[in-house]
Amino acid sequence: MNATTTSSDPLDLNVKGDLAEPHEPHWISRSAFQILACCLYAVQASLFLALYYNITWLVVLLLFPASHLMHGVLIGFHEASHGLLRKNRRFNEFDGVFIGILSLTSFSLYRAAHQTHHMHLATERDEELWPFVDPKSPRWFRRLAAFLELTFGLWFTPYLFLRTFFRKNSPIRNKRVRKRIWQELIGIVAFWTVVLTAVAWFGLWKYYFCMYLIPAMFAANMQSWRKYVEHVGLSGTSATGATRSIVDEGLTGKILAYSLLHEPFHGLHHRHLGIHHWQLPHRASELTPTTPEETAPYPSYRLAVMDLIRDLADPKVGPHWRTETNASASPASVALPG
């Protein structure tokens, strides 16, 4: 029997040998979030120095990695909602709440709403994909929602979850959960009141805009585009039929997937909720379609984005749209890899 070994390539998460298991990756893969956070701290420190010494060209240059790393940290927020970011539950909760404060979203609210996304994927009860799962929503409204979310994601995303919380017949009914959500919302308002007061008092606006607001806006928009790539335009009913996954075997693709905590393997995340992100690439073979409705993995993000763009003219998600479309004698939207 072959001994179990791990690849010397930290981006190759496949464990070799007869005893190979997806829970034995390289330590660099297991520490992806911590590495992303440290890189973000380093970029932020560099941004501070560039602003302090008025090196404008360096400030502009650093905004790009700051935005991408913030996007990666936002995905850590998602991992925390599944209890998978940290082994220690208290640390996991702390990281989730803190990232939520910075992204203007209650962690407990996101977690409660995100459960509907997994329990009722691509149905009218999927709160995260509203209004694209609502067949009663007119096309002009869905287009407007897509424009706002893809352009002003830093504010539209919190609105999306607040709508879930405040709307009539909210799926979030547990009194203890609602109480905690209220506490977190008050905490967000209090935190940003103190921060903005201090920024105004000490005249730190250039640091606020360049170290937080601008990269946060870009990061939130990246988050929205990634979410749309994963789901918008699909009409399947299964974990792989209602998601686009990207399996890029190139070095650049592996680095991108690593920096996004392997979210590009999104169909696998919906199929295996309880496993850590670093275990997903090991199961990439499961993404091979076994039924006509399933979507084959895309070999690059570029092809997945191109497929999404074709669907943005009439953004919708879910199999119920097929019924609506057939009733009006129009062809259904089916996403296929380019």
UniProtKB/TrEMBL annotation:
UniProtKB keywords: Membrane, Transmembrane, Transmembrane helix
Top-level taxon in the UniProt lineage: Bacteria
Transmembrane regions listed in the UniProt entry: 57-77, 97-113, 140-161, 181-199
Domain Fatty acid desaturase stretches: 56-300
Stored Pfam families: FA_desaturase
Stretches the record annotates as Disordered: 317-338
Coiled-coil intervals: none
Biological process per Gene Ontology, one example term: lipid metabolic process
Protein name: Fatty acid desaturase
Organism: Prosthecobacter fusiformis
Origin organism lineage: Bacteria, Pseudomonadati, Verrucomicrobiota, Verrucomicrobiia, Verrucomicrobiales
